[in-house]
Design brief:
Blueprint (H helix, E strand, L loop, with lengths): L14 H21 L5 H31 L5 H21 L5 H31 L2 H7 L11 H18 L7 H29 L5 H21 L5 H35 L1
Helix pairs in contact: 1-2, 1-4, 2-3, 3-4, 4-9, 6-7, 6-9, 7-8, 8-9
Length: about 270
């Protein structure tokens, strides 16, 4: 349920798409509330209807999103469409098998879809649309450490702030002379510090017996791999593409990872202390 609380950081800056995301959150919340109860056979019918409603609205929303991406010549449209297709298939399979599933199985599959779409898809894919449309000067102005990013574990917050400080250096390089090389040097520092931070964070998670350590480690691995590829390819990118890609990878590897995953660590600590 906590995952289905709408947050301003989910906005991509397109009125219709953001409103459709909010409506999807509301439909998913209703479905999750029903599937989380010990449902009787009498209660299964409304659950089926809500999941069907979710499927229909997701399909409509994806069409809206794809039309918008096409209208702005979004370069990752083909990849985005494939992700949409995968998510539609998850819901299709759930609906076609729903009569043979136990309530616990429906709950598990619904959880998978919520995490795959409402969380991961919005923050890693839909946010790319916003970054693509935002002028680089506006990205520079808005980028940086904010109190909203605190997870309230001192060493984690201090290291996150250091990561932002390093990344901000790359955004603030305005000289044309050797600009790419200077950005690449800063990215290498960011890569090195990020690896150290992730190792320390995982050691801390082991210490507190964090149950999602394996998944969190996989998230760290993906971020490191993405950053490795970005550093490798940065020398061949045009200047405007380089800066937009820098904004995208920092937004996903720092901002969204902190908001969605690192905060779960401190939520786990609070749960253990209650």
């Amino acid at each position: 349920m906590e995952a289905l609380i709408w947050k301003t950081e989910y906005n991509i800056g397109h009125f219709k798409i953001d409103n459709e995301h909010k409506k999807l959150f509301n439909i998913a919340k209703k479905a999750y509330q029903l599937s989380s109860t010990k449902a009787t056979s009498f209660e299964m019918e409304p659950l089926k209807e809500i999941i069907k409603e979710l499927f229909q609205y997701v399909s409509t929303h994806f069409m809206t999103e794809e039309e918008y991406m096409s209208s702005i010549n979004y370069p990752y449209l083909a990849k985005h469409k494939l992700i949409h297709k995968k998510l539609i298939n998850i819901l299709k399979e759930m609906i076609s098998n729903i009569n043979s599933l136990e309530i616990e199985e429906i709950n598990s599959k619904l959880n998978e879809f919520i995490n795959e779409y409402f969380i991961t898809h919005i923050i890693t894919e839909d946010k790319k649309i916003k970054l693509f449309k935002t002028p680089i000067e506006d990205l520079r102005k808005s980028f940086g450490w904010k109190k909203d990013y605190l997870v309230h574990e001192k060493f984690i917050d201090e290291e996150h702030k250091e990561l932002f400080d390093i990344a901000t250096e790359a955004f603030n390089i305005t000289q044309n002379e050797n600009k790419k090389e200077k950005i690449k040097d800063i990215l290498n520092r960011l890569y090195s510090y990020m690896k150290t931070h992730f190792q320390r964070e995982e050691e801390f998670m082991k210490k507190i017996n964090y149950p999602k350590l394996k998944y969190h480690h996989a998230c760290h691995e993906k971020i490191i791999n993405d950053l490795t590829l970005f550093v490798r390819d940065s020398s061949f990118m045009q200047q405007n593409v380089l800066e937009k890609e820098l904004a995208r990878i920092i937004d996903i590897s720092l901002v969204q990872h902190i908001i969605q995953e690192d905060r779960k660590i401190t939520s786990w600590i609070k749960l253990c202390n209650n």
